[in-house]
Amino acid sequence: GSVVASYPYDDSPTHKPTGVYSKSADDEVFKYLAKAYASHHPIMRTGKPNCPGEEGETFPDGITNGAQWYDVEGGMQDYNYVWANCFEITLELSCCKYPPTSELQKEWENNRESLLAFIEKV
């Protein structure tokens, strides 16, 4: 896991594992939506999630193009965008895939304003 808002495309024509910006026709809209979420999240907006084992990983403005981060062939956000005209971003909300119950209230507090800001964009 990480703490970042990722947007299409997750896949790239070269299928290099990482580092290839795979721009969609609606790239600016996706960046706008990802920033709307990330800018209200106290950790995500820093662009430095500081996840164990990935302490040096950074994401400017707390967002990333999926394929630039790592290439995912056949991902759901790309499928929905291409085949259903559904604008979808992927939100990585925690360094831990399954946070303990004791941390859920803090996760809610970290994400509440981001969720509201994102919903307002609809």
UniProtKB/TrEMBL annotation:
Keywords: Carboxypeptidase, Hydrolase, Protease. Coiled coil: none annotated. The keyword Iron does not apply. It holds the Pfam family Peptidase_M14. SUPFAM superfamilies: Zn-dependent exopeptidases. Residues 1-122 form the Peptidase M14 domain. The active site is at residue 92. This is CBPD Carboxypeptidase.
